[in-house]
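Aim 2 progress update. The chain analyzed this quarter is reproduced below.
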Amino acid sequence: MPPNLDPLTYEEMIFIKEVPWKVKQVSTHSNETPLVAHRTQKQWQFMVERGLKHQDYIQIKPQSKFDFPILGEGPGCIVNIWFTFSSGLLSLRKYYSSWKIRKKVYLRIYFDNEETPSVDSPIGDFFGVGFGKYREFKSKYLEETSGGYVCRFPMPFQKNARIEINNASERDTVIFYGAITYRQYEKNFPHDPFFFHAKYREERPTSPKIPFKLLDAKGEGIYVGCVLNQENVKRSDGLKFLEGNTKFYVDGETSPSLEYTGTEDIFQGAWYYIGGAFSAPYHGCTVHSAWKKAGMLGFIRSSFRKNQVSQYRFHEYDAIPFKKSLLLFTHHGEFDEIVANQSSVTYYYARKPTQTNWEPLKKGEFPDEYYSNQSE
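Predicted C-alpha cells:
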C-alpha cells in the first residue's frame, strides 16, 4: 500500500485522537451567591425560598483578577473558549465603542504548573481585533459573534491548565461570563505535546530601518498565525505602512524561505484592501478605517487621514514548522521608512523547552537584503 501523502493539518498533529477522552467544562457559573428574584420574576420565588444559590457571572474589580477552576489533573486539551464581558450592565449601550475593557483586561493561560503564561494578551487582541474595538467576524479559530468571543485553537496539556482573567484597569469593574470546554484524556499521551502559545507585543512607534518582529523563537514548534494592527503616525503617510514585505527565516536561514510582497498580501488581500473589511475562515481584515468599498476616491481620502488596519491570518495546511528556530518579521513601508504604531498577537505551538525574545529587533540581529550592503 502506498504511503499516505495527504498533508496533515496542524490540528491533526496537535489533537491526541488515539487516546480516549471525556468532555468537561469550567465556567463562571457559581453556586456561592444566593439567588435574588426581582418582583417581575415571581416564577423564581419558590427557588429563592428554597435557598438556591445561583450566579452566572463574576465581577472583577480594578487591579484584580479571576482564576477559573483548574482544568484537569492529568492530560487534557482545551477545545473551546467562550467569553463575553462588559464594564457593567448599564454600559451595554457602549459595547461596540468602549475600548478600555478589551485593552485593559488580559487573558493569561498557564500549562503544567508553569510560572510564565503561554498565553498573554489583551483580551480583545487575542480574539482577533485590535484597537480595543468589537467587530463581528467569523473564522475557523477565532470569532466575535453577536457579543460573544470564541476561540477554537486546541490547547493540550499534560498535567493541568489554569486560566486567569486580569483586570489591569484603574477604575472599571468588569462583568464577566465565560465557559472553557476541554477534553480530559483517560491515559497519558504517547508523545510530548506541542503547547499552544499566544503573545502580544507592540511598538508605539516603530523604528526607522528596523522591521517589526512577530516571532523570534529557538526550539521546536509550529507557527500558525497572527493578528497585526497598524496605524499611521503621520497623516500624510496614509496606508503606506502596508507596503512592507513579511519574511520567514526557518532554522537559521540567511534567506527567507517564505516572503510575502506587501503586508496585505500575507493576509490574502490586495491593493490596500480595495474591498474594505472582510472575514474568511483563515484570513481577514476586521478594521479598515479608510473606506468600506474602495476606489480611487477612497485611496485619495486615505492619504490625508489617520488610518487603522487590523488583520488576521491563520495557517493550517500551510503552517510553518521549525526544528531549531524561527525568525518572523514584517516591514512597515518598503524599507521601514514609514513610522507607524503597530501591535500583534502571534499564535504558535512549541515543545518545551523553547526560548523566545520579544524585544524589538536591532541592527545586526536580522538578515535582510534591504540593509545587508548598507553602511552604518
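Confidence is low (pLDDT under 50) at residues 1-5. The chain has six helices and 26 strands. These observations will guide the mutagenesis experiments scheduled for the next reporting period.
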